[in-house]
Predict the structure of MoxR family ATPase.
Amino acid sequence: MNIPNNVKELILKRKEKFVNDKNLQLIGKPGYSSPDEHILPDALTSLVLHKNVLLKGPTGAGKTKLAESLSAEVGQPMHSINCSVDLDAEALLGFKTLVEKEGNTTIQFVEGPVIQAMKNGHLLYIDEINMAKPETLPILNGVLDYRRTITNPFTGEVIKAAEGFTVIAAINEGYVGTVPLNEALKNRFIVIDVPYIQGSILEGVLKSQSSLSDGDLIKSFVQLSEDLVTQVRNGQIPEEAASVRALIDTCDLAVFMPPMRAIQRGIIDKVEDEREKAAIRNIAETIFG
C-alpha cells in the first residue's frame, strides 16, 4: 500500500493515542482488497486529516470491510450504527432508563454510539446512512462539520468531540428503501467510490476469508461472481446477488455440500423474484453443471 511518509507519521500518532484504550476490542479486522490500489490509502489519508469519509458503492462491494480495515490500520476503536427507517434519536444518542442502586431508584442515561464515539475520540461507522429518514439525520449536522459538537436533547449536555473522532458512513445509491442523501449532508464528507472486487483480488479474498481450499473450485466461484456482476450492471438481477459477503458464505457451504446447493442457499434463496432466481441458477449451472 503506497502511503506518503507524512501520512504514515499521522497514522503512527493515532496508534500511539489508542494503544492503552480500554475499548480495543472495538478495533476492526483488516483484510480489505480492491482493484483500485488508491482506495485504502486515500481513505486513510482522509481519516488522519480528520475528514469524514463516505463510502459509496453497491451492496456487498466490501464497504464495511473497508471501514473495519481503516479502524485496524489506525488502531482506533469504532462504534457502529446500522440505519433503517426506524432509526431515531435514541438509537443514535442513547436513552434514559431506571436503575436500582443501594435501594434507591434513579434515572440514568445510557449513552448511544454517537456520544460514546465523540467522548472517547473514536471512529463512528454509520452503515446505509441513506436508509434513515431524512428528518433523523439533521441531528448529526453539528457532529459532522467543523464544530464537532452536539447538544444532547435528553440531558441538555453539550458534547464536544474528543480529538480523533471521525465519521465513516456508507451508502448504496438507488437501492430499495434508500433516499437521496441531502447535499448539505453529503458535503460534509470526502466521497470514495467502492467498486466490486473481481479477478485475482477476489480469488485472494476467497482463499483468505473463506474455508474453501480447493483452488479450482475457488476459480469457478470467481467466474460466477464476474458473471453475476455483469448481470447486475445489465439490470437483470439485484445487487445483493453479487455480494462478496454472500459469495464467501457460499464458499464456506461448498466445503460441506455440492456447489450448486451451496449457491442455492447462499445466493439464490436470498432473491425474491422467480425470474431473477432462474437467471442466477442458469449462470451457476453453466459453470458448475
About this structure: The chain has a mean pLDDT of 89.
